[in-house]
UniProtKB/TrEMBL annotation:
Listed name of the protein: Uncharacterized protein
Source organism (scientific name): Cloeon dipterum
Highest taxon of source: Eukaryota
């Protein structure tokens, strides 16, 4: 019997890629001794199986009429989430971390809820877990985040998925030349991305600290927590509420139109992104084998260090992938300008080519079959898509430097978006979002109180929560 595992929405998943592989053939497990490979497989299954499913809004809002009139679906989710909090949350995080650090080949962590019971509790839900992303902004969810580590883990993972999804689009803006007049908009988007990376990382620091505080819940400074959430909110609102990828598509379109003249250009550099080398379970290198320094949620001041086994690919295969990129993304007349022999003697090109080929090899075995992929696999797959996009952008930049040619406009970017998505609106939009985004736990509580004032069903809980927030914020 297969155990149900939580998934992310189709909207956040990578587009259909190479054929899915069995967990045993997962990219991170290549070249491992058989005994360690079995341990890593069990570790991966465990981490996916204890990831909580989404709880419907009616539970967060304590909507008793909906719960009482339901056929069990709301109670099933809540029962699973409660069991995860009490049995699979803080108590097992530290144990799991010790297991993945140990070079011993046995893995003793097991879900406290049997496969049969899990599937029975969750029999009413779809395997795809297609919930509404607006739960990221709901007041009842937000006020619980400092006190419910499992809910914070779920919330952060969805924020991380949004980050990967938008970064796959923003990545097209890096390295390739733009008319210098678009420099402010490019730097604005770059700052948004770096800020989101950094602050999502800070809340993963919060969870890592939680593993050292078990069995108590570490609350910390709620004012700092608010400030971090507010910065993540700006990013999330741009991605979800304002459809940020349409602004990016339009920026790519106007770049092509503007660069026909010989005006001065600007090339955006990526630099260091906080989550790229983070030592946590959403990094592919984390799963390449046990290590004494591995951390389940990581530390913003540390990076993961792994010695990767490199499989040499023959020159013909290297060039085959390069030819595919040329044919797919460049016009035939531009391809005729390329001198392949000269390319193969260029160190900069060869470095880019090796990166593209390495990521292509990983992509063939990073998509795991649905029954065992869970949330972790999809995040890792999306991360690889992002890195591949950056590598291809570097190739575009190299082509422009050598031959003064640019890639074809993406078919989707040739459509004319509404005027509201004009490039000139990017900076005013961020200014508006910044002014309008005020994350306040006290304000969230007051909003909930007003909404529930008529029946006063939550009055005692409000008094307790308001006291906690007042003590920690003031």
């Amino acid at each position: 019997m297969s155990r149900k595992v939580a998934k992310i929405q189709r909207y956040l998943q990578p587009n259909q890629g190479p054929k899915a592989v069995k967990l045993e053939d997962f990219a991170a497990f290549h070249n491992l001794p058989e005994d360690l490979k079995k341990k890593q497989i069990e570790s991966f299954r465990f981490a996916n199986s204890v990831f909580p499913f989404y709880i419907p809004a009616e539970h967060h809002e304590i909507n008793l009429s909906e719960l009482q009139n339901s056929k069990g679906e709301y109670w099933g989710n809540a029962a699973h989430f409660l069991l995860c909090n009490k049995a699979h949350g803080i108590p097992l995080w530290k144990t799991f971390e010790a297991q993945i650090q140990s070079s011993e080949t046995t893995f003793t962590c097991r879900p406290h809820i049997s496969t049969n019971m899990t599937n029975r509790i969750l029999q009413h839900i779809s395997i795809n877990d297609d919930d509404d992303l607006n739960f990221l902004f709901r007041n009842w969810v937000l006020v619980q985040l400092p006190f419910q580590p499992i809910l914070l883990f779920k919330w952060l993972t969805y924020a991380l998925c949004c980050l990967s999804r938008i970064e796959a689009n923003v990545g097209q803006l890096y390295y390739v030349p733009f008319p210098e007049k678009f420099k402010p908009e490019l730097l604005c988007l770059h700052k948004m991305l770096k800020t989101a990376h950094r602050n999502i990382g800070y809340l993963f620091d919060y969870l890592q600290h939680q593993t050292r505080c078990e069995p108590d819940i570490f609350v910390g400074n709620l004012k700092v927590f608010e400030e971090i959430l507010q910065k993540i909110f700006v990013f999330l609102r741009f991605c979800i509420v304002t459809d940020g990828k349409t602004f990016i598509s339009n920026l790519l379109k106007v770049r092509e139109e503007s660069l026909k003249s010989n005006e001065k250009v600007f090339q955006l550099k990526r630099g260091r992104m906080a989550l790229k080398k983070r030592n946590f379970l959403f990094n592919l290198d984390f799963w390449r084998g046990p290590g004494p320094h591995l951390k389940i949620f990581g530390d913003s001041n540390e990076e993961i260090v792994r010695k990767r086994a490199y499989t040499e690919v023959n020159l013909q295969d290297h060039n085959f992938k390069t030819n595919i990129i040329l044919e797919r993304y460049f016009e035939p007349d531009d391809i005729k300008k390329v001198k392949m022999k000269s390319m193969l003697r260029d160190d900069d090109f060869l470095t880019i080519q090796r990166k593209i080929n390495r990521l292509s090899v990983i992509s063939r075995s990073i998509r795991i079959e649905d029954t065992e992929s869970g949330i972790i696999s999809r995040v890792l797959e999306m991360n690889n898509v992002v890195e591949y996009g950056y590598a291809v952008s570097k190739f575009y930049a190299w082509m422009f430097k050598k031959y003064k040619v640019l890639p074809k406009i993406h078919p989707n970017s040739t459509e004319n978006p509404p005027d509201s998505f004009a490039v000139k609106n990017i900076i005013p939009l961020f200014e508006t979002i910044n002014r309008g985004t005020v994350m306040s736990f006290q304000k969230a509580l007051n909003c909930i109180k007003r909404e529930n004032q008529s029946n006063q069903k939550c009055s005692s809980r409000f008094e307790v929560l308001c006291d906690i927030f007042h003590t920690n914020i003031c």
